């Protein structure tokens, strides 16, 4: 059996890990889009033949894990895609949105390529490809084994990272023996505001583990709601400006809405407009409401007492483009929440572009942003950033709230892995992280008793004995 790493290898986005068993059958774990600057050509070629892939198991719905599934289907993949019911519902929202964004963004990309004399790029996929991909998805319940093929059985356990997110355990029978492979997906945090904590998983021989925050501990946030309220007060009330929050459409946006809903219920939220400016975020919030089975006890108790956790006075869900433009043109203080979380696409880029040079604007970053993304540049403190091919000075205040992060820090990830006997794990492969952070995460794992920790390079192939 071999594993080959075609994405999220010494980088964070583009998650793709191809398993080939001795019979020649191929199983793909995730099929994510590379995100960030200069990734257009990376997304054009997989490095493997999609038509040869027999099965796919999907950890969760974020675009860096799902965003190339329709292209995989376009190029010949016809097999089943195993994932949770909530992930399927989210993929319908997020992949359709991705197809539309790519169509509009591709025009700008090709205009620049033509000016440089480079050949134009083709669309990665369209809405019909998304429909075909959705038709190939098969719902799987948490903690119930399912048969992938004669040689392979799968098990999904709650990863606590996103609605429907899962870690993947595979039992592979070949050469008169069993191998147990575990793929963490993205590891969530205990005590998430909405979701249940990550679940334990069976003992593994090999682990493919994420490493996004392998070098750090999240700052303690004793009162997240008060911190958010302070930023609202400073920006919108005292500064009469706009608070702009790039946020992933799923989970992060709903956590923000829930926090603001609680502040409203407590009578502490100022009366000012709050805009959720994204058709995808609006649909994702509806999906969230439909899957309360994934909620933790605290929010279920809140819903029982107060009703809908995602609706309060002066909250406006915006889908219409003209309404979005009107928000940009308005000088009224307000809160604007829109995807993408890395500020790489969608309406949020327009809001940032139109307000980044205003000193009374605050751009609040509430999650991970790849270093080569717009969000990453803002988080890094760059004095100038590129938006739609143009340079803009960063005059607006940039604030960071890491308490909203959906990725566990190294202590939380070590706790997640504590269900394992490290001496029985033959190799841990680190993925989904920047290389400098992975080196530190490797040290932490080795100190915890994991004896063989590898950091595969892009397209590296490893044989599992």
Automatic annotation (TrEMBL):
Pfam families: Beta-Casp (PF10996), Lactamase_B (PF00753), RMMBL (PF07521). The keyword Hydrolase applies. Residues 13-227 form the Metallo-beta-lactamase domain. Residues 253-378 form the Beta-Casp domain. Signal peptide: none annotated. Keywords: Hydrolase. InterPro entries: Beta_Casp (IPR022712), MBL (IPR050698), Metallo-B-lactamas (IPR001279), RibonucZ/Hydroxyglut_hydro (IPR036866), RMMBL (IPR011108). It comes from the Bacteria. PANTHER family: CLEAVAGE AND POLYADENYLATION SPECIFICITY FACTOR FAMILY MEMBER (PTHR11203), INTEGRATOR COMPLEX SUBUNIT 11 (PTHR11203:SF37). This is MBL fold metallo-hydrolase RNA specificity domain-containing protein.
């Amino acid at each position: 059996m071999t594993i080959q790493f075609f994405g999220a290898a010494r980088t964070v986005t583009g998650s793709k890990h191809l398993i080939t068993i001795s019979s020649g059958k191929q199983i793909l774990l995730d099929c994510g889009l590379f995100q960030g600057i200069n990734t257009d050509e990376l997304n054009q070629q997989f490095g493997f033949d999609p038509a040869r892939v027999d099965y796919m198991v999907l950890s969760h719905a974020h675009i860096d894990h799902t965003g190339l599934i329709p292209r995989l289907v376009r190029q010949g993949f016809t097999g089943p895609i195993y994932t949770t019911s909530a992930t399927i519902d989210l993929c319908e929202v997020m992949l359709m949105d991705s197809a539309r964004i790519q169509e509009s963004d591709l025009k700008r990309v090709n205009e620049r390529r033509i000016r440089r004399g480079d050949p134009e790029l083709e669309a990665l996929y369209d809405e019909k490809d998304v429909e075909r991909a959705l038709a190939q998805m098969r719902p799987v319940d948490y903690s119930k084994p399912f048969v992938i093929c004669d040689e392979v059985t799968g098990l999904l356990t709650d990863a606590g990272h996103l609605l429907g997110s899962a870690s993947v355990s595979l039992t592979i029978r070949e050469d008169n023996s069993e191998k147990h492979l575990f793929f963490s997906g993205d590891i969530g945090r205990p005590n998430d505001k909405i979701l249940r904590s990550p679940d334990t998983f069976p003992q593994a021989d090999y682990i493919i583990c994420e490493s996004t925050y392998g070098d750090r501990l999240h700052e303690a946030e004793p009162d997240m709601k008060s911190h958010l309220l302070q930023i609202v007060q400073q920006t919108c009330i005292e500064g009469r400006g706009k608070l702009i929050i790039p946020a992933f459409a799923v989970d992060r946006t709903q956590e923000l809405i829930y926090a603001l809903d609680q502040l409203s219920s407590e009578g502490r939220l100022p009366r000012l407009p709050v805009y959720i400016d994204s058709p995808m975020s609006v649909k994702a919030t509806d999906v969230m409401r439909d899957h309360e089975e994934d909620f933790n006890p605290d929010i279920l108790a809140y819903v029982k007492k107060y009703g809908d956790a995602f609706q309060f006075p002066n909250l406006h869900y915006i889908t219409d483009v003209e309404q979005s433009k009107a928000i940009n043109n308005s000088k009224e203080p307000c809160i604007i929440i829109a995807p993408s979380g890395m500020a790489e696409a969608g309406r949020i880029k327009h809001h940032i572009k139109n307000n980044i040079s205003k000193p009374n604007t605050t751009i609040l970053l509430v999650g991970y942003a790849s270093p080569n993304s717009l969000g990453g540049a803002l988080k890094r403190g760059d004095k100038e950033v590129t938006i739609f091919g143009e340079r803009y000075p960063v005059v607006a205040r940039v604030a960071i709230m890491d308490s909203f992060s959906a990725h566990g820090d190294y202590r939380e990830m070590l706790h997640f892995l504590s269900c394992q006997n490290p001496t029985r794990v033959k190799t841990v492969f680190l993925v989904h992280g920047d290389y400098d952070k992975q080196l530190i995460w490797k040290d932490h794992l080795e100190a915890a008793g994991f004896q063989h920790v590898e950091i595969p390079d892009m397209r590296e192939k490893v044989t599992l004995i």
